[in-house]
Amino acid sequence: MGQLRLGQIAVIILCAVVGLAVLVFAADTLVSREAAPGPDEPPRADRVAEARRMASEGLDEANDFGCRPRESTPYPVILVHGARSTGAVTWPVAAPYLSKQGYCVFAFDYGWSRSVRESAQALGIFVEGVLQATGAGKVAIVGHSLGGIVPRAYMRFEDGAGKVAELVTLGAPHHRLTGELSESCGRETVCDELRSDSDLMKALNTPSMVEPGVSYTALGLKAEQQAASTFIEGPPEQVGNRLLQDDCPLKGLIEGAVGHNLETLDPVMLSYVNKALEAPGPLPEDYRPDCFALII
Predict the structure, then answer these.
(1) Number of folded domains in the chain?
(2) 5 FRET partner, CA 20 to 30 A, in 19, 80, 114, 125?
């Protein structure tokens, strides 16, 4: 075969360049079509924007939607307040403390008086927004009081278990309300739902209280057990329960020093939270806190 002339070489190169350009254009078009919704599909919701609107205001070191999780703290932490409260009231100590431990911290405000299932749906939107913003695969949730029940409803009824690595609850009424607490709760929809014989509580607690693949740590005070059990039942490798006074009995000697509304500010309770979040699984059984810690 003879040598190719210069003109023939130029034609071959030109054809190759044109062919490559066509392939690149076709690939780009295909990707664009796959990424964009079809004519009959609704546009993708901007969950980040929705989550920003639900984020608690007035909290230092929280709700930075530009935060990216570190390898050592891979799950963003979402803080969920309880009834008659807000994130700013409940988490002014916990948010900066957990942020200093290296977590991306977010706090969620919601209409607590409405149905728990409605609140669970709102939490689902917030979780999606946090995941979209941070690029994380799952979140960890820390909830106080009613804020411990709403995440359980989100996981059970809103297909949220696959997006939650761990749930830590403080003073959450997982089983029942006494008559006195039911009376003090009031006539809000949520008060009826928290009674032990309600359809909601039956659905949350039977046949199991836990979801596969999620770790649980349930924290509480001895005084709270007289009103509502804060414990979660489940296998020990998946669930850990702890009462503050079991480790630190002096914490219960001063009336009002640590109560239901103040436990989210207590250094020992927050050390439990941090220890539970440090590694996969619930709070280790052998963990003992510094009962005299004053600065966190």
Answers:
(1) 2
(2) 19
